[in-house]
Amino acid sequence: MTTPTQVRLDFERTRRIGIGEAILSDAKTVDQLVAVLAQADAAGASMLMTRLRQDQFEALPDRWRERLDYESLSRTAFSGAPAEPRSNAEIVVVTGGTADVGVAREAVRTLAFHGFTATEIYDVGVAGLWRLQEQVPTIAAHKIVIAVAGMDAALPTVLGGLVSGLVIAVPSSVGYGVAEGGATAVRSLLSSCAPGLVVVNIDNGYGAACAAMRVLA
Fold this sequence. Notes:
By secondary structure, this protein is α/β, with parallel strands linked by helices. Helices cover 37% and strands 18% of the residues. The chain folds into two domains: 13-79; 91-216, Rossmann fold, CATH 3.40.50.1970. It has nine helices and nine strands. Helix 5 (101-113) packs across helix 9 (205-216).
């Protein structure tokens, strides 16, 4: 019995939408990840891998692991060369707390893979509002703000009333009890009164970065 092909990469996606395929890695076996890397290599294509756990990375054969630019905090890896950097930093990535930085770094690394630079401002949540107030002039200088926050996710709403740029909110899974792994944060953001606030899924730094790139295309 012939084993069906498990991996079929979409090499035409960049031509269609301007953003290449990314590989969501955490549910894949090591053999499937190797098949992905082999197909990309054979096609001479660079590849972004998201949600690549440390144990998955370490389980890859040496020849593949040594070729990856891997960051454990964001759980992202670059296979092949990223796009050439663009000249202007029009995106700022902001977090409510230090615990949100992993999600923020997923967004930053996704942007970097596609050639977009980003300013990073971390740990400026509303529990210490003075920290955010200090950074508002810098944040407001950017066309797009990606704001990552857990708990009640107040940060993106506050920013939506302070800056003129597009605010893309990323609810994070950080929080106790009724925070419910980010469910409270996403509901809070979807019911926000800040006009024009864009909300992506829980912990979806990759999706926020892709939304930003579509705006700037």
